[in-house]
Amino acid sequence: MMKIVILDKSTLGDDIDLTPIYNLGECTEYPTTPYDEVSERVQDADVIVTNKIKLNEDTLKDADNLKLICVAATGYDNIDTAYLKEKGIALCNVPGYSTDSVAQVTVAMALSLVTHLREYRGFVHSGEYSKSGVANKLSPVYHEASSMTWGILGGGAIGTAVAKVAQALGCRVLVCRRKQEGDFPLADIDTLCREADVFSIHLPLSDSTRGILTKERIASMKQSAVVINTARGAVTDEKALADAIKTGRLGGLGVDVYSVEPFTQEHPFYEILHYDNVCLTPHMGWGSAEARERCVQKIAENISCFFAGENHNRII
What average pLDDT does range 125-134 have in this prediction? Predict the structure, then answer.
């Protein structure tokens, strides 16, 4: 019987039903797996299912039966693809399952920050509104989305979904993408940085995108600009973003992804946790109930198709 090892089930949520995967073979699941225990846990596996665990020669060298790795995500920068190619191990990902979920979180973050909802909520919940004797509080000043330019860095499925929502809100939308076709006006990244009131990032992490939002590009942005990153932490200069918030060089920052997850007290974002114009969330943007259900179903399909000899969501 096929042996399937699920290395970090907790990243899929405690509520998720893994029955579609369990129906395919003998499954062993772990809530999470420390790096130094990966090798032992996968040594008899035919299939590994993982989300965030790093898999490379060090962790896979004793997995003599391993035929397939299924990433419970679209991105696979935690997998040493060169090693898999050398060993003839297949890799499948799950594209498209979280588009609506990530787009929703991106827009929610952006609208919360540009409307200063945290500050207004805090004024009421602190009791200050009741004490004020005034029916309204209209500071900090906020502006309508229809007066803004929304810059989209990365015009794939998620970036396009965000662009459609931004357009529906009345925003002028600019998209920076490699492919020149699309339904929205295109601009290079530096134009995006200069002109965007909301700048949202939807890029995969690769050698060409690592650190692409540099200190210099952040410095070129409008002082009122709001930056949203729901893609990968390492595509930005995180220290430069934190410094821009601390010095008032950015209007707001919303981030769901980090170069180190979870980030520690040494991370530059730890110093801006208390800022009203900062919204940091725990890499939850991909994880609506519907998206996670789709993800599990697609993983099961990837495994079934692979062993049926079909090329389905194959990266390698």
Answer: 97
> Could you say which of 41, 177, 232, 292 is catalytic?
232
Judge if 3-97+289-307 and 99-280 fold alike in CATH terms. Answer: yes
For residues 240 and 257, give the distance between their C-alpha atoms in angstroms, rounded to a whole number: 16
* Catalytic (active site) residue 232: yes
Domain extent listing, the chain: 3-97+289-307, 99-280
Q: Which of 40, 261, 290, 310 is catalytic?
A: 261
Asked about 261 being catalytic, the answer comes back as: yes
Active-site residue, 116 included: no
User: Would you say 46 and 3 are in contact if contact means Cβ atoms under 8 Å apart?
Assistant: yes
- DSSP, collapsed to helix, strand or coil, labels residue 174 as strand
Task: Say which of 29, 283, 301, 314 is annotated catalytic.
Answer: 283
- Pick from 50, 138, 34, 120: which is nearest to 91 by CA? 50
CATH number of 99-280: 3.40.50.720
pLDDT (tens digit per residue) in 32-62: 999 999 999 999 999 999 999 999 999 999 9
Give pLDDT tens digits for 229-283: 999 999 999 999 999 999 999 999 999 999 999 999 999 999 999 999 999 999 9
| pLDDT tens digits, one per residue of 203-224 | 999 999 999 999 999 999 999 9
The three-state secondary structure class of 109 is helix
Class of CATH domain 3-97+289-307: alpha beta
- Other C-beta atoms lying within 10 Å of the C-beta of residue 300: 20
